């Protein structure tokens, strides 16, 4: 029996009608139950077609302001000998050596527009795991979704810091309206 790669097929052909309806209901705010929303978001992290369906909802049904805010950006970063090297140039603002850390460690900063402000995302790598810190001057609910974890933190006076991320594909959802996919390639 052949396995279906959900990331390479359409949502309608590989996911149940019920799941597709849930993805759309989470997108339009009809479903607010936190458990169902979390289950849908975990699925979106592993199914590119359902992520596209989620984004398409905003492009087709929402007003243009919301549609503009819902775009997903992909950022690819190589990790070689403890150093992070951004391969994507979109929104990558700086690459710097981490201060106050031991061994080879670097930080890649991504400045990502959100509403009328900028979200700063700092990715660092140490001891075979990634840390992602999200800074914003506004209170934003941030969902971090990988193949093995789903965490929800809120920014504000302190950053939302996700630690010891072992997965190489990370999806960050900001207030369920905007998404950033980070692909970390370990060499």
Rounded Rg: 17 Å
Beta strands, count: 11
> In sequence order, what are the helices and strands, one letter per element?
HHHHHEEEEEEEEEEE
Number of structural domains: 2
Structural class of the secondary elements? alpha+beta
Shape: globular
Distance between the termini: 32 Å
**Could you give the order of strands across the largest sheet?**
2-1-11-10-7-8
Share in β-strands? 35-45%
Can you walk through the features of this model?
Mean pLDDT is about 75; it is low at about 1-15, about 60-70 and about 95-105. This protein has helices at about 10-15, 15-30, 35-45, 50-60, 65-70; strands at about 70-80, 85, 90-95, 105-115, 115-125, 130-135, 140-145, 150-155, 160-165, 170-175, 180-185. The chain is globular, with a radius of gyration of 17 Å. The protein is of the alpha+beta class and about 190 residues long. It folds into 2 domains: about 5-65, no CATH class; about 70-185, no CATH class. It has a 6-stranded mixed β-sheet with strand order 2-1-11-10-7-8, with helices on one face. The chain has 5 helices and 11 strands, in the order αααααβββββββββββ.
Give the tags.
187 residues; alpha+beta; six-stranded mixed beta sheet; five-stranded antiparallel beta sheet; 5 helices; 26% helix; 41% strand
List the helices and strands and how they pair.
Blueprint lengths: L10 H4 L2 H12 L5 H13 L1 H14 L2 H6 L2 E9 L2 E4 L5 E6 L8 E9 L2 E10 L2 E7 L5 E5 L4 E5 L5 E6 L3 E6 L3 E9 L1
Parallel strand pairs: 1-11
Antiparallel strand pairs: 1-2, 3-4, 4-5, 5-6, 6-9, 7-8, 7-10, 10-11
Helix pairs in contact: 2-3, 2-4, 3-4
